[in-house]
Design goal:
It is a single chain. With 434 residues, the chain is mostly beta strands. It is built from 5 helices and 33 strands. It folds into 2 domains: 168 residues, Cathepsin D, subunit A, domain 1 (Beta Barrel); 202 residues, Acid Proteases (Cathepsin D, subunit A, domain 1). The chain is 13% helix and 35% strand. The longest helix is centred in the N-terminal third of the chain and has 25 residues. The structure holds 2-acetamido-2-deoxy-beta-D-glucopyranose (4 copies). One 2-acetamido-2-deoxy-beta-D-glucopyranose binds next to loops.
Amino acid sequence: MASSSLSLAFLFSLLFTVSFSEAKTSSRPFLKVTKDAKTLQYVTQISQRTPLVQVKLSLDLGGEFIWVNCEKGYASSTFTNPICDSSPCQLLNTTSCITACFSPPSVDCANNTCGSFPTNPFGSISTSGPIVGDVFAIQSTDGKNVLPMIKVPSFYFVCGSNNIDIGLANGVTGVAGLGRTKMSLPAQLSSYFEYDTKFALCLSSSTKSSGAVFFGDGPYTLLPNVDASSSLSYTPLIINSIITGGGFVGDASPEYFIGVKSIKVNDKRVNFNESLLSFDAEGRGGTIISTNKPYTVLETTIYKALVSAFVKAMPKNVERVPNVAPFGACYSTKNIGSTRVGPAVPSIDLVLESKNVWRIFGANSMVAVKNDVLCLAFVEARTDFAPTIPVVIGGHQIEDNLLQFDLEKSRLGFSSTLLGRSTSCANFNFTSAV
Ligand SMILES: *[C@@H]1O[C@H](CO)[C@@H](O)[C@H](O)[C@H]1NC(C)=O
Ligand SMILES: *[C@@H]1O[C@H](CO)[C@@H](O)[C@H](O)[C@H]1NC(C)=O
Ligand SMILES: *[C@@H]1O[C@H](CO)[C@@H](O)[C@H](O)[C@H]1NC(C)=O
Ligand SMILES: *[C@@H]1O[C@H](CO)[C@@H](O)[C@H](O)[C@H]1NC(C)=O
């Protein structure tokens, strides 16, 4: 008797565990992402507050957290201001304690609460603001279909203000940081829904059809039934623990660095000082991936070397035409063939630490500036001093590529162009029934 009821209980617990874990893994958060035609920002939408309000945000892959402009009529019956040193205040290493606020109590005015420094990467402006928790809702998927919205009861973000709400795409009132912190969108979602911190970016090259960010593991199924999480190549994600940009000493950079060792054009090594690609003692150097730059930005000597190598590799029957700013090598389309992976131009390879190669084909290396003119879609870092990060891989180079950021294994999975597999990041079935 005792043993049979025990095994029955065991069976029940087994059933319960199985169905519970299925529920946890079959539905994962995801975001629909649309490229804004005017600003070239990647715009998405979440819901927060009680009652729920839809909020448009621009993606910032290396951003520390979500910030929202709280001065645009923030109303909610469920927001909380965490007290200094409580666990939400420790999601970031560097928060400040706001001991007293002398305006009437509101979402962005409380005593003994913590704050941080929301930054608008598109206007390069920053301010300070409190950390706030509130109800958060996001679309979900099983990797193939759109499923109902799922809720996080207390998701932490930072209040921004009208001061930094400048230069954002139309209708956007904040920035969604996907960076390497415990407070970023992927980190808070994986901690609440209890899956490995892993997410995948699949940005559409079109402003008319949307791409997606998938949180958690694959499949990430694109029509016609291509799982973009299969056959990825991998390279380590590198932590730059030395100050970069707006960070603080001792805080690792929230940006995703990868180890590019050299660059090749048509399999020939581009000639520049490759030690620029490694970190120096001050933490300068390296390569990041960024959704804040529409085109890859290169330090001047690397840029000049790449343009010169590309021009040399271009077949002689392709006519070079006057440059169209900000680009440095433009061509008539007349003798450029077209292929499934874009215009038939010399390939550009990023040779990675893992000896893997990220090959960039025409669809990602060239941009159409007029009907009959294509330009090499890389730009020069125009600063009076050497940029901190010499290679910033921008939006045009990652569109229609699936990039999986795996923080557990600290590696980047990359697909190279999905156009080669006859699909694209615009091919997720957003029309599927909820
Ligand atoms: C914070 O505390 C001060 C001093 O006790 C008080 O005057 C002020 O109204 C409080 N502010 C809020 C937002 O509660
Ligand atoms: C936060 O601080 C801890 C302890 O000092 C350190 O180990 C960790 O790397 C820091 N995290 C970040 C993101 O800087
Ligand atoms: C390459 O760059 C490094 C670091 O900026 C510098 O120390 C070195 O002298 C350079 N080498 C050459 C050959 O210019
Ligand atoms: C998209 O999903 C819907 C609902 O699941 C389905 O009816 C439709 O056939 C799918 N579209 C394609 C092209 O597979």
